Amino acid sequence: MDFEKKLKRLEEIVQKMEKGDLALDESLKLFEEGVKLSRECHVQLTQAEAQVKKLVGFDANGEALTENFEPED
Questions:
Q1: Contact 6/37 with Cβ under 8 angstroms?
Q2: Residue 46 pLDDT
Q3: The pLDDT of residue 18
Q4: Which H or E element spans position 42?
Q5: What is the pLDDT of residues 17-73, one digit of tens each?
Q6: Per-residue b/e over 4-30, b at no fewer than 16 CB within 10 Å?
Q7: How many Å apart are CA 37 and CA 66, to the nearest integer?
Q8: Beta strand 64-68 with 53-58: parallel, antiparallel or unpaired?
Q9: Does the pTM of the predicted model rise above 0.85?
Q10: How far apart are CA 52 and CA 58, in angstroms?
């Protein structure tokens, strides 16, 4: 499942749980699924972040000069 589908499913789970009309069994199942999806999304975001490059300029030939992106804390 791709990132966007996982995120959409996670939003659906949150909406269902916020209603508060689920049985305990169903709430626990949805909670477990939500935690799993959240972890998977976090891993995908971390991997994507590692691939992001910051454009810092161009060389004499017009080639892009990049460096690894380091997020500011």
A1: yes
A2: 86
A3: 95
A4: helix 24-51
A5: 999 999 999 999 999 999 999 999 999 998 887 766 777 778 888 888 877 777 666
A6: eebeeebeebeeeeeeeeeeeeeeeeb
A7: 32
A8: antiparallel
A9: no
A10: 17
7 token code pair: 């995120």
Q: Nearest to residue 34, comparing CAs of 55, 54, 61, 8? A: 8
Give which of 47, 46, 54 is closest to 70, Cα–Cα. Answer: 54
Residue 64 has a pLDDT of: 81
Exposed (0-12), middle (13-18) or buried (19+): which is 33, by Cβ within 10 Å? middle
Return the residue matching tokens 């499913």: 9
Q: What is the pLDDT of residue 73?
A: 62
What DSSP designation does 61 have? Answer: T
Which region, left, alpha or beta, applies to residue 41 given φ > 0 means left and ψ of -120 to 50 means alpha? alpha
Q: Which tokens belong to 52?
A: 């992001």
